[in-house]
Every structure is written in C-alpha cells, then in structure tokens.
Specification:
Layout (H helix, E strand, L loop, with lengths): L47 E6 L2 H6 L2 E8 L5 E9 L9 E7 L4 E7 L12 E8 L5 E9 L1 H17 L2 E10 L4 E9 L7 E7 L4 E5 L4 E3 L5 E10 L4 H6 L7 E6 L5 E4 L4 H14 L1
Parallel strand pairs: 1-7
Antiparallel strand pairs: 1-2, 2-5, 3-4, 3-6, 6-7, 8-9, 9-13, 10-12, 10-14, 11-13, 14-15
Length: 285
C-alpha cells in the first residue's frame, strides 16, 4: 500500500478539542485588526456558578461545549434547560435536560453554541438556566459564564472567516484510485482583496495520511484560482485505530494571507467526500 508521511492532526484547538473552524464557512468576517468592545458584566447569581469547557467528546461532536454548573449555595435545585447567552454567538433555543444539584455538586451540561458574530466580543457571556427550586418555583436565570473557551473558539472561527473573505477553499474531484483517494484543493479569490494567500500545510490524522504537492503553495496577488493536487492513503488499518478514531475526516489546513500569521482551519469535506474516504478503508485495509 502506498503511503505518505503520517501527520497527526494538531489544531490550535485540538488540545481543547474543538472541531476546529471550517474552511467552508461563508459568512464575511470583521477585519482581524478590529477588536470588538465587551458589553456590561453579567450580575452574579447567589449559589450558582458556571464555566464553559470543551472536552474531547465535544470536539468529536463539534459545535458544542459543556456548561459546567456548580451549586455553591446551601440548597439543592434542578436545572431543566440550558443555553449559551453570548454576544459573539448567534443565540440558539434552550436545550431541555434534567440535572439535579446538591450543595457542592458540579455537573457538566452539553450545550450547543450558534454561529460566531465577528463584530461582537464573546464575553461577557452567561449561561441561561431554567432552575426548579425545592418548593417547586421555576426561575429563568442568567448566570455569569466563565468563557475563556468560548473566547478562543470565537477568535479561531473569526480568523478563518477573515481568510475566506480573501479566498474561498474547496476540495474537488475526490475519487478512489485503488489504495488511494485523489483530488484537488482549490483556492478561489473571493473579493477585491488581491493579497496573496498561501496554503502552508495540509496534515493527515491518526487514520489517514494526506500528501499535497509542493507545499507551501501560493495564490498569487491578483490570481483568480490555485489548484493543488492532493492524495489520501491509509496511515493505520489496525482494529484499534478503526474502532477508536473520533474524527476520521478532520484534517488540518494551514492558510496565510500576505504576511499575516498562519490560520489553522479544517479541510472542508462534504458528506459525499467523507463517504469516498470511508470507502478507502474497505479497499486498502
């Protein structure tokens, strides 16, 4: 079986897990030099504290964090719904659940977040909780949310959008070729910004190797498109890797506009393209 050098995906957000920002996100960004001003602080709620954290399971699912709620008071309560309330994310409906708290108890509540809003800061954020008290009273509370994790997610996703405002990214022509899958990585200039855009790297993961010709490659100033041939092969075929891999189709794509810092993004793959890669397991292993 043909092999290329294996590269384990290491995203800026991999340590914290997030399925990183996708290079296919289309919404125009705020320019990187713009720093949204934070809004007013969220008042504390006696007896309840909350923090946003991202676990490896959240990375596998994508688009969610854990709202880690702690009962810091002297009475129990039950949370029956949760949502993230942050100016930097499009609001989503409350997620129904049931979590019973006693004094001192901490429970993580899986909570999705919406699309980023890049002209607003992620903080101050709140956890919107529906709380049932021991006497049956129900309250909807905005609990201050320690949101360093949300801030990082917001920054990363908006950085990707800033790059895509200069050049869009797509994978085309993905097809099986025996013990490999081949195709092209295509950059297409998006607007009037004619700065060069460089594909700095494309890395494989624990299951697949990926090779791209002669990286780094640059979409030159004013050029309309850049096409880079890519080839995927199996890095591992052992049962443990096949059974345990959580993000088999996550590949690190490095992008750089002009002399700006590199921005890590996810290689954009639709479901049909993921299915082609999944078929490689049957033919090559």
């Amino acid at each position: 079986m043909r092999r290329t050098a294996a590269g384990l995906v290491v995203l800026l957000c991999a340590a914290c897990g997030s399925a990183g920002p996708s290079a296919a996100e289309p919404t125009p960004p705020v320019p990187p030099s713009s720093t949204p001003a934070p809004g007013p602080a969220v008042p504390p709620v006696p007896g309840i504290e909350a923090e946003a954290v991202e676990l490896r399971t959240d990375a596998a699912v994508g688009g969610q964090v854990q709202v880690r709620v702690t009962d810091t008071g002297t009475e129990p309560f039950t949370v029956t719904a949760v949502a993230i309330d942050s100016p930097g994310f499009v609001p989503l409906p409350d997620r129904a659940l049931t979590a019973a708290y006693a004094p001192g108890r901490t429970i993580d509540l899986p909570t999705p977040y919406g699309e980023v809003v890049c002209d607003r800061a992620a903080e101050p954020a709140a956890a919107r909780l529906t709380v049932v008290r021991p006497d049956g009273r129900t309250e909807t509370l905005r609990v201050p949310l320690a949101a360093e994790t949300l801030g990082r997610i917001h920054e990363e996703r908006c950085a990707v959008r800033a790059v895509l405002a200069v050049a869009g990214v797509a994978v085309t022509g993905l097809a099986s070729d025996g013990d490999a899958v081949t195709g092209s990585l295509v950059l297409t200039r998006s607007g009037d910004d004619d700065r060069p855009v460089t594909v700095t790297r494309l890395e494989g993961n624990v299951l697949y190797d990926v090779a791209a010709d002669d990286l780094p490659r640059t979409l030159g100033a004013g050029d309309p498109t850049l096409e880079v041939p890519v080839e995927f092969t199996m890095a591992r075929c052992d049962p443990h890797a096949l059974a345990e891999v959580k993000q088999p189709h996550l590949f690190l794509l490095g992008l750089q506009v002009g002399d700006d810092d590199e921005v890590p993004a996810d290689l954009p793959l639709d479901q049909a393209q993921r299915d082609v890669l999944s078929g490689l397991v049957a033919t090559a292993c």
